[in-house]
Amino acid sequence: MASVSIFVNFTLTHRFWLVVERAGLHRQRSVLLFSGLTVFPHCDVELQVVLLGLELHSDAFVCWRRYTLVAPLPGSTDVPQAPPCLSKGRVDGRRAKFLNFLKTVITGDESRVYGYDPETKAQSHQWTLQSRHGPKKHDRSAARRNALARDEEYHRIRKLQYKKAKKGSSYDTVPFIDREDAAYWRQDGQAELVEQLAVSPRVSQAKKVIMFLGDGMSLSTVTAARIMKGQDTGKWERESLAWEKFPYTGLIKTYTTDYQVADSAASATAYLCGVKTNKGTIGVDVNVNLGNCSAQLDPNFHTNSIAKWFQDAGKSTGFVTTTRITHATPAAVYAHSADREWEDDHEIVGDGEDPAMCDDIAEQLLQREPGNKLKVIMGGGRRNLLPNTVLDVEEGKYGYRKDGRNLIQEWLEQKAASSASYVWNRDDLLAVDTTKTEYLMGLFGYSHMDYLVERDNAMDPSLPEMTKAALEILERDPNGYFLLVEGGLIDIGHHGNKGQKAVSETVELDEAVQVALSMTDPTDTLIVVTADHGHAISINGYPSRHTDILGIAEISGVDYLPYTTLIYGNGPGFQDQVNGVRPDISNDDLLDTNYRQAAAAPRDSAAHSGDDVGVWAHGPHAHLFTGVHEQSYIAHALAYASCTGEGLTYCGNSRFRRTHTRTQARVTSRGRGTQRWTPRG
User: What is the DSSP letter of 358?
Assistant: First the structure.
């Protein structure tokens, strides 16, 4: 008879894996793979082992969390508190089901199942279970496995396993969830209704405007981030991101003047300048085609951003990003360029154009308004400001500029008469006296900044830390300010089909929004959160409640192989089928920070998506951000609320406001739909 050995690891603060090992075959599966079979990821280890038909000779109580096991040392009586998993009767039933499944799956000699710590390789606590199957010899060659995949008997067995798996998945009670009966949801709905009824528009000037931009933050990305945040807080699907608590929400249409699917350059021109334009161009209108240097020079085709409008009104401005400060989103704050790639002069030369004729984006940051008046500039991208004869302070690589100019040094010289600080690491940023600093430039990367999950926290500040420093400086201006904060690495992660990186960057953007909320007054500060475009990522399958968003959704009922909850429409995560069989991800480390989720179509870099993105608003005139709008509308609404720009404003159009107020009163008295109003003046 084949034996099965069980090991359970109690190492603290490490990920926990379930490993199924047969003779000659090592198959490592995350416990999340079995969320479709039983309550495995959500109960304590003691109950998990009981579900396997085993007895655990330890009182240790180990609860599954996203990355961490929380448990006392063996022998300790200090047991962490957690909601109950299942009653004894349900445990016994689940144990029998799962035990039968294991007996069906495990058919090899000396098979074993054990807890495994991927960092320490530690194993402990062994039990033995007899399989009802005797030893069987299997040809483990690739050819044999491919033949089995096409074999009718193989499919019959896998289909049987699939059906058994589905019986113990989402359709049964899921642990750690309150009793969500009719009374629960009625009470929840009534509480939410009361909260919504208390919402009323705040009609006053927004002296301060903070715009948070999640680059590539599709609605599915927001949902995934909410769940990831909930995994850490214990609220799971019931968690909310900071902006999801804002009272006003809308949808934004992101297409450009020439494409159904936008890029970050054209979309930034829309929401910052109020004008839609061609894909790949920045701060210019539709008359400037991509790469047309001569058209770029025509000031009639330039579109000024809201930063310029604020500066013209005597207010401060700044931006924070996790990408290069010359990248598409921040560049639209200050630049006018026929090509988003012209971040420095060497890129212009590479395209056969004359950099003496068409200024590159980094050059415009220093030489023109509104770039040279920005109070706060933080992000990455030192390479675009350094000459190709100077080594970067951190990476040991040369700069990109061919003109020999060191724009960092030029910025310091330009601000010599003011209180200005340049920093390139976290310690220097935290040491800045923001009460005495008028201008701040922080460049924390040779190119883009590092991802949250890979960041050296001793060297690189977080997005919330940069946001805090920026607000400390800008809040000193009594006239108000405009601040753009971009979570730019959300997009970069999605381009690589690296879901963990993209979603964790979204969670960090949530923390930055919380910082802004804590440092500002909602009576005079309008905070808007939105995205420039989406990405073709979906949350699919039928994963059980409280399933890791980075884990397995379920097992397919067609090829009987698992697939992840997050899947992309295109990108480098695409893998070819072998003999008509898609790759088996059972052996994949789904929690690896560089893991690529599967994609339906191959691309070197995942393309954006053209679906609408969300917009969330809080503060004065936040009610303007409801309904479905063109992306270019955002800039106009911000200008109206803040009394800046050349269009309608709350402060400068008293006749418009009086007419609107009188008409609204008539509509209220006569009934809905009996009166329409149009602006005059």
Answer: S
